[in-house]
Write a structure and sequence with these properties.
7 strands, 265 residues, globular, alpha/beta
Amino acid sequence: MSKELYYEVTGAGPLLLLIAGGTDDARDFTGMTPLLSDSYTVVSYDCRGISRSRSDGPPPDVSMETQVEDAHWVLKAAGGGPAHVFGNSSGGLIALALAARHPDLVRTLVTHEPPAVSLLPADDPRRKLGHEVNEAYRSGGVEAAMALFAAGAGLDKWDPDPPGGIAESPQAMAQMQAKLARMQTNLEFFFGHAALPYMSYKPVVDPSIHVVVAVGEQSRGQLPHDTALALAERLGVKPIMVPGGHSGFVTHPTAFAHELRQILA
């Protein structure tokens, strides 16, 4: 399997792997990495098909198995492991799947709002969202898929600039706006080749792994927040409230990094 993946390594200390969500990349962690790299060797990467990890030729469909082996490869390239692993959104699902397949590589796993829709109650219509979004993409393209996905996940209620702002600084808000711009360039690949495996994945957690489930203070009622709560209930653990919303590590990097350090310590 080709390993044309963009990754970054900075700092010194125990390995800490950061995995971004489906349309996002390593630049999402720009604000947080300097606050962690004094104590950890921080590793981040762009998932296959996203941003700087695009391959030449027709884009391939990416299974969860491929995502896991890519994360495994990045860890080996960065020095091996075991590592602490933080994953946001679908990156949180990759982190869970990595721990299930390679439990020896994971020390502490922090999964932040993973969209594990299979864990929702049987009568929750959002369990079908992945297949509905896939059908919308096949029939109506990115715009139709995004509209359905945002509405179904409750993400259409997010206001990037409410009164008083939601970010901890103007620099953090600028990072958030840059993130949203990058997201637009990755939507075609995400909906066409990666979204359905994410939304179909059912986490299987090795009981030997220390799993921390994190939810955002500002994301109550959104799908990823609810699925994280369902995962915490399934595991019998208390979810940890972290700053910001679904992208709190972008909008509140200082506070989020502080909380992550506390968790890992």
